[in-house]
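Input record, target 12 of the design panel.
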C-alpha cells in the first residue's frame, strides 16, 4: 500500500486513460528511481464517462472529462492528474496548471475498415461512423458522397459495430490505439496535410496545482520541450477561436530544427466551407503564433461563419 507520502495520480477509468496514467507512473519511477508502490492511481468518474446515450457535442459544456478530477486536485485528494491534451479545455480552473507534456505520439488519425483500404477507396454512399465534429466535417469535405453516422463507445464497441455492418469504416486517433496495443486493426493512417488532427491530439499532459514546488519537481523530468511548445501554440489557437464544442477545429504545431510551424483549419460541420492557415515562427513565440493563426482564420471566415449553424 502507498504510504503517507504517497503520490496520488488521478485519472478517468477508461482503458485509454488508465494506460496513460500507468505510463506517467512508470516514467516517474524511472526518472526518480522511486518505488512504484509510492504512487497510487486514483480512478475518478467524470460526466463524460457517465453520459453514454448522446453525442458529447450535444451535451456541451466545458470540462466534461475533467471537472471531477480537477475538484480532487484542488482539494488535495490527488496530487497530479493525467489527461489527453485533446480533451483539455483552454481555460483551467484557478490554481491549476498544465505542468508537463509527455513527448507527443503520432498525431495522425487512423482509418479502420474491412471494406476499403483507405477513405479514398470507400464506395460511393458508404457509411462512416464518428462522433467527432472535426472528423465528420473533414470526411464530408473530402468525400461529400459518404454518409456520416454518430459513433460513440470504446474500441471494442466500434469494432463490433463495424462487424455488424452499422458502418463501413471509422476513424480513431493512432496515438490512443498505440497506447492500447491495438495497432493491428488500423487499415490506413490519415495524412495530416489533408486530414489535420485536433489540437493536442497524441499528447499526454499532466495537470497539477499551480506553483506547487513538490509536484513541479516531480514532473519536470517528464516534460518534453518541443511538445510543450507545440501545445502552447495549439492551445492558444483554440483559445483565440473560443472554440465551442460545436465547432470543427483542427490544428497541428511541429518543432523542427529550432523552428515552429503551425497549420490550422476551421470547417463548417457539413464540410462545404473550410479556412486554413499556415504560419512559422520562433518556439519562444508559440502562444503568439497560435493566437495570430486563430485571428487570421476568424477574419477569413467572417462573423457569420460561427453563428451560421449554432
Ligand atoms: N476524446 C477521446 C480521446 N481523447 C484522446 C484520444 C486519443 C489519444 C490522444 O489523442 O492522445 C481519444 C480517442 C480518439 O480520438 O480516438
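The sequence produced for target 12 reads:
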Amino acid at each position: 500500500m502507498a504510504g503517507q507520502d504517497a503520490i496520488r495520480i488521478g485519472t478517468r477509468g477508461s482503458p485509454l486513460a488508465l494506460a496513460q496514467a500507468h505510463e506517467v507512473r512508470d516514467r516517474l519511477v524511472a526518472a526518480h528511481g522511486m518505488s512504484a508502490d509510492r504512487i497510487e492511481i486514483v480512478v475518478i468518474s467524470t460526466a463524460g464517462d457517465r453520459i453514454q446515450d448522446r453525442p458529447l457535442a450535444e451535451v456541451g459544456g466545458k470540462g466534461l472529462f475533467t471537472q471531477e478530477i480537477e475538484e480532487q486536485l484542488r482539494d488535495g485528494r490527488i496530487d497530479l492528474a493525467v489527461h489527453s491534451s485533446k480533451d483539455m479545455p483552454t481555460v483551467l480552473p484557478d490554481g491549476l496548471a498544465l505542468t508537463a507534456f509527455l513527448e507527443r505520439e503520432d498525431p495522425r488519425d487512423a482509418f479502420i475498415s474491412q471494406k476499403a483500404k483507405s477513405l479514398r477507396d470507400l464506395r460511393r454512399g458508404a457509411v462512416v461512423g464518428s462522433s467527432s465534429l472535426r472528423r465528420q466535417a473533414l470526411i464530408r469535405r473530402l468525400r461529400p458522397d459518404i454518409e456520416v453516422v454518430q459513433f460513440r463507445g470504446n474500441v471494442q464497441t466500434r469494432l463490433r459495430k463495424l462487424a455488424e455492418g452499422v458502418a463501413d469504416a471509422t476513424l480513431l486517433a493512432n496515438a490512443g490505439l498505440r497506447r492500447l496495443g491495438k495497432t493491428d486493426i488500423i487499415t490506413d493512417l490519415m495524412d495530416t496535410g489533408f486530414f489535420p488532427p485536433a489540437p493536442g491530439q497524441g499528447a499526454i499532459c499532466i495537470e497539477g496545482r499551480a506553483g506547487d514546488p513538490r509536484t513541479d519537481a516531480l514532473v519536470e523530468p517528464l516534460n518534453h520541450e518541443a511538445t510543450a511548445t507545440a501545445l502552447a501554440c495549439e492551445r492558444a489557437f483554440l483559445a483565440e477561436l473560443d472554440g465551442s464544442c460545436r465547432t470543427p477545429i483542427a490544428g497541428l504545431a511541429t518543432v523542427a530544427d529550432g523552428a515552429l510551424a503551425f497549420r490550422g483549419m476551421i470547417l463548417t460541420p457539413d464540410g462545404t466551407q473550410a479556412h486554413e492557415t499556415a504560419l512559422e515562427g520562433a518556439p519562444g513565440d508559440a502562444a503568439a503564433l497560435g493566437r495570430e493563426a486563430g485571428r487570421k482564420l476568424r477574419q477569413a471566415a467572417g462573423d457569420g461563419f460561427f453563428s451560421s449553424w449554432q
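The two ends are 50 Å apart (CA to CA).
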